[in-house]
Structures are given as structure tokens and as C-alpha cells.
Amino acid sequence: MSVQSPSSVILIRALNFTPNPSTAADNAFQSEVTDGKSQAEVSQQALAEMDALAEALREAGVTVHVFEDDELTRPDSVFPNNWVSTHAGGYVAVYPMYASNRRLERRADVLEMLKNTYRVQTIVDYSGLEPDGIFLEGTGAMVLDHVSRVAYTARSHRADEMVLERFCADFNYEPMAFDAIDSDGVPVYHTNVLATIGTDVALFALDMIKDEKRRWAVGERLTVNGRRIVEITEEQVREFAGNCIELMGRDVDGRPQRIMAMSARARRSLTDAQVAAIEESCRIVAVDIPTIELAGGSVRCMIAGVHLDKRRDVEREFTAAVEAIDEHPTTLDGLTAPRG
């Protein structure tokens, strides 16, 4: 298991996907459906894209936990990274969400799966801050360096610094907040559209940090342990080149292999030199998800990584041991029961 790259992920299979009208005002990456398709057609296309991502990740050796969502009231449920994150040592965070209809995405069954399948020690729930108008939308608002324990965060009303400081104190991260603005002067709504942090490589639109000193500080902190920065442009950010995630999969021989999961649109926006720099560290897995990207998020937003240790399946191990004894009873010849 890699500190930075989870080998298991959570995906939500949203049967009623649609771009969320409640988030359109401050999400410059969101688009309207303009080609005359019905809601049913849009949902079916999005569903096929979700299934394609799940299949591509499984083929790459990643464990994928898929949850169905047939609710009409959760248009953005395909993006679970905004409401839940997991952390080494058995810690889970639940986050306060800006749009009121997105708060319905939090699901007890996802948390129960985590507790039953993985070692969960503590769940820290910040969602009670929502009535006070204080928000921190998970690993959309923060891009986490799990190796150096740094939380890179573009300031916005979806990423309150007070909650950021509280999260960092609770989970032992160093907060690194900055202002990121596009060429129209609009603040970037989520940090994970402009930055991806892997083990040995980071994709980052540093030029969108307008303060020169802060830009230098972010770049210096990213590379202090030898990580290479692949700088991406604002145009590439708009193609979702920053909205990627490094995962731990397997190669064709079953050996551990890091992958960089991204959309096909993001992959097409990268130069040959950028691709080569990424592939020095991990293999690119790209999936076409144009319908889902209408909602203003891409592959990274669709994935909640699981940074937890698995529980041993004691019952299954016991059953296997009993079956092995039944199949090979002669292995017990000559043994006597212990006294007492």
C-alpha cells in the first residue's frame, strides 16, 4: 500500500445524473446540456461513463466499491470526494457542503462499509458547521500530500480557513492556503481542478496563484522531498488536466504499479513532454467522461480514495482452514490433542 496512492476507491453510480443548478453560479467549469438531449438520455450516457471508469480501474488492479444512487434529489452524488475522505491510522472525515442539495449526498451505508471492511478508529464530522455558513468540501477543497502531510487549499467560500485549520489540527496536516484566480478574475472554486499530487510527480497550475511569493512557497513545499512538478496552463485546467488522482494498481504480471487516473479530455490536453514526465512515475489510465464533465468535475471528483488498512476476514480464513483439513485429513496423522 502506498502512502499517497490508495489501492481501493469508492464510486457512486448515480442513476439520475444532471448538472446541479445550485452550483452553477460559482463553478466556472460547469456547462449546460446544449445538444437537445432529454434528462433520461443524459443520465444513461453518464451511467455508461461511470461504469467505464469503474471497469478501467478494476482492469488496472484497483479495488472499486460501487454504491447505487437512484435519488432525484442528489444531482452531484457522482462526486463523493467532496463529503468524505479517509486517512491512515483509521481516520475518516465528513465535510460541510456549500450547496444545500449536496448535503443529501452523505450516506450512512458508505461509512458502514468502511467500518466493516477497513479498520476505522474515528470518524470526525464537520457537517454541523453548515448552519453557520462554514464549508470545507473535502478533497475538492483540499489537495492532500499524504507523504509530507500538507493540505494545499485555494481559498473560496467552499474552503473556509477556519475549518481548514481545524482539519489540519485533527488530522496532522500542515495547512497551505493560497488565492488562485483565473484570467477573468474569478476565484477557482475547488483546488482539485488545478492540482494533482502524486508520489513523485505533481500536476499544478502554479501561474493561477497570482501572488509571486506564495506561488514560490507552494512550489518549494511541493518539491522539498524531490517531487517533480509538471506545470499545467489555465487552458489545460479548463480541460480538467489538474483533476486527476494517483492510485495503486497492478501491472499485467500482478506486481504493484502506480497509475494516474484522468479523463480522456484531460489526457488529450497534455503535451508529449508532460505525458513523458508523468509516465516516469506512473501509468496513465484515461477514460472518456464528457457527460459527467458537464457538471464541472472530472475523474478526481468521482473518486473517494480509501487510505485505510483492510480488516482480516477471520470467518473466511477459518472456513478455508476447515476445508483444507477436510480435503487433506492425513495431515493430522500422528497428532494428539493438547492436554488441559
From TrEMBL:
Pfam families: DDAH_eukar. SUPFAM superfamilies: Pentein. Gene3D superfamilies: L-arginine/glycine Amidinotransferase, Chain A (3.75.10.10). Coiled coil: none annotated. It comes from the Bacteria. Signal peptide: none annotated. This is Amidinotransferase. It comes from Kytococcus aerolatus.
